[in-house]
Amino acid sequence: MANLEDVPTPDLMTELLRRMKCASKPDKRLILIGPPGSGKGTQSPIIKDEYCLCHLATGDMLRAAVAAKTPLGIKAKEAMDKGELVSDDLVVGIIDEAMKKPSCQMGFILDGFPRTVVQAQKLDEMLAKQGSKIDKFAPPKVSGIDDVSGEPLIQRKDDTAEVLKSRLEAFHRQTEPVIDYYSKKGLVVQLPAEKPPKKSPPKLRRLFPEMQLTIVRL
């Protein structure tokens, strides 16, 4: 544990102000769902800071679990070394571990999971055991076009046409049914991706002031 006398005063004040701000924030549990290039990576840090949440990206969590050689990380590495996909149960277990960290005390933003209805069901089962539920956002009805304005969504510079086409096909085939799954539970709200990122928090406050678990559709 760091000696507070060694921490610069400006840093202490910044942390104190952050904790005071976060103390008044409601718990939030968000899942960001959207096609490639819809702005999940752009919106996540803004929403994270607004609600004092932890950002859980499944790829990062898997790599961290493998590097830390946790029991689940060891099992995941064994699967990857064999060229196999990491099972849904293992991924959910790693997410479960990550959600118990102090940084996730106010809630979380889950990015990159669930991608299928089966994964969504397993996630719901895990959250039910925790006594938690989800607040949610989702993707545009027409790929690459915002539902509200009709304007094109931004494509990442590192996406080739072939890669993007493959990712969009996988999204429509596997992940769009996840939106239907959560829509039936009344948990999906839409965040128009054409809006400037900094305008997201006020819209979120209007969309789910009382909800704890929300699926955010981008």
Automatic annotation (TrEMBL):
One of its GO terms (molecular function) is AMP kinase activity. Keywords: Kinase, Nucleotide-binding, Transferase. Its EC number is 2.7.4.3. InterPro entries: Adenylat/UMP-CMP_kin, Adenylat_kinase_CS, Adenylate_kinase_lid-dom, P-loop_NTPase. It is an enzyme of class 2 (transferase). SUPFAM superfamilies: P-loop containing nucleoside triphosphate hydrolases. It holds the Pfam family ADK. It comes from the Eukaryota. Gene3D superfamilies: P-loop containing nucleotide triphosphate hydrolases (3.40.50.300). Residues 136-158 form the Adenylate kinase active site lid domain. Belongs to the adenylate kinase family. HAMAP family: Adenylate_kinase_Adk (MF_00235). This is adenylate kinase. It comes from Ananas comosus var. bracteatus. The lineage of its organism: Eukaryota, Viridiplantae, Streptophyta, Embryophyta, Tracheophyta.
